[in-house]
Amino acid sequence: MARLALGVDFGGTKVLASVVDVDTGKVMGTGKKKTDSTDGPEELMQRIFDVARKAAGKAGTEMGDITGVCVGIAGQVDVERGILVGTANLSRSVVDLPMAKLLKDELGIPAIIRNDVQIAAAGEFRFGAGKDIDDFVVVFVGTGIGGGIVRNGEIVAGSAGNAGELGHTTVQVGGRVCGCGAHGHLEAYASRTGMTRAMLGELRRGRKSVLSEMMPDLDPADPAVAPFKSGMIREALKLKDEMVREVIDEGGTYLGYGLANVVNFLNPTRIILGGGVIESVDAYFEAAETSTRKQALAHAGQAVQIERAGLGDFSGVIGAAVLAADAATS
Ligand SMILES: [Zn+2]
Prior knowledge:
Blueprint: E1 4-10, E2 14-21, E3 26-34, H1 41-59, E4 69-73, E5 76-78, E6 83-86, H2 99-107, E7 111-115, H3 116-127, E8 136-141, E9 145-151, E10 154-156, H4 187-190, H5 192-204, H6 210-214, H7 230-238, H8 242-266, E11 270-274, H9 276-280, H10 282-295, H11 298-303, E12 305-308, H12 315-329
Parallel strand pairs: 1-4, 4-7, 8-11, 11-12
Antiparallel strand pairs: 1-2, 2-3, 5-6, 8-9, 9-10
Helix pairs in contact: 3-12, 5-8, 8-10
The chain binds zinc ion (ZN).
């Protein structure tokens, strides 16, 4: 019989849950919902319970036949105690939430929690672009930027569970304010959120762009504008939009600065890049690769392999399921 586990990936725009056959990596059933940054702790947990049950239903299985659940979430996670300490980009009212216990109480199966990029690293390691090596870094670009490190075949969690938080490393002294409150962090420049802010700034200055035609109701001065979708950015580039091209080149270049730091500091064999903007916007990926190789030490910068993630949107849920099964059987 297939060994099934439940993986949940709680990101900046959506929460995805899948029941996964952890021996083959096959996704058996999936549930998906939008996330809402105004969620309190109850709403946030309810969103997870809903997608978890939906995934089990789609997979045609009962919760009791699932070995365990792991939720990966974009935030600071206390892995040992199963507590979500806080999140910079999701709900700010959620602090010290005992997620693992709440999951176990509600779903009745063993539960663990991890950082969202660590689950993606686990997925890529077991079944994706890292399955042939045991030494790589994954970086996911979305509303924020997260990184995960695999070293000697193990995911490096760090003493507080935050290893790989590349988005919150500094690339500009005294630079833009980041979602976490500090200045000049990478994700304030190279994430979809950061690049959207830069594009809105250009629109406010009166720059012409097809974005104004694509979104006739857009108010560039509204601080609550949601990060632009990768598909729309790709569309604007196809229409040769100069302003969008500049911002994407700049964002990709900043990402390369961050990655060059990773290359010089860890000297990994491979960097695996994922997330919507990486997958669908070639100019961004290319700018990041070029500036990584230019900024890094010559030999390491030329030697490092830079590839796109192999599991697309499912890196996180597959990795989470693998970790849940490993934890439940160890
Ligand atoms: Zn930050």
